[in-house]
Amino acid sequence: MPEIAGYSIEAAYFPADEVGGDFYQVLEAKGGGKLVVVGDVSGKGLKAAMTGTLAMGALRALATEGLGPGAVLGRLNRQLVETSDEGFITCMCARVSPYGEVTVANAGHLPPYRNGEELVLEPDLPLGIVPEVQYVEHAFHLENGDQLTLLSDGVVEARNMRGDLFGFERTRSISAQSAAAIASAALEYGQADDITVLTLTRRLGAAVAEAPAAEEVGLG
Known about the structure:
Largest sheet: 5 strands, antiparallel
CATH topology of the domain at 7-151 and 194-201: Phosphatase 2c, domain 1
CATH class of the domain at 7-151 and 194-201: Alpha Beta
Helix content: 25-40%
Structural class: alpha+beta
CATH superfamily of the domain at 7-151 and 194-201: PPM-type phosphatase domain
């Protein structure tokens, strides 16, 4: 994983088939900081993987333009509407500064968790459905030791032999654990879809100073 000044980062990825439609990226953002993205393409297998590859290539180009997460998702959405004949992508995009400032936008994806609590973010439409969508940005601040967890619905939708879903409550209860532990819990319960988990933990160092806190979003 790429290094992010002031943070430790971990990811776990388990496709349901030989190739999967989930993806994650950590990209250098023009103007400073990093873009952290987790996405989930509708469907499974090779076709979903190809759509995910297309999205990742577009994201690498967009990261060089210095856009905020809402604008990144808006541009990516238009590209996917123009180039994809079917399907959609849910996507969470975050811009992270070395000082703990985080700005996120949500294209129909599961909300992130902070320290085991769901962040209340109103999701906008998934990518690739209609061309003109305004993706709302939400800002908050991570203190030293705070963990932000992004994941795909393969965790929530894991299903045991009786057909019971892993569900939101179990997901919330383990959301402050490591990426590997969260993904392993879903796998052991019964994988039904691609599973992706990415955790970002604030780690203050001598070279990273504090900046004023951004306006907080609510916790669920």
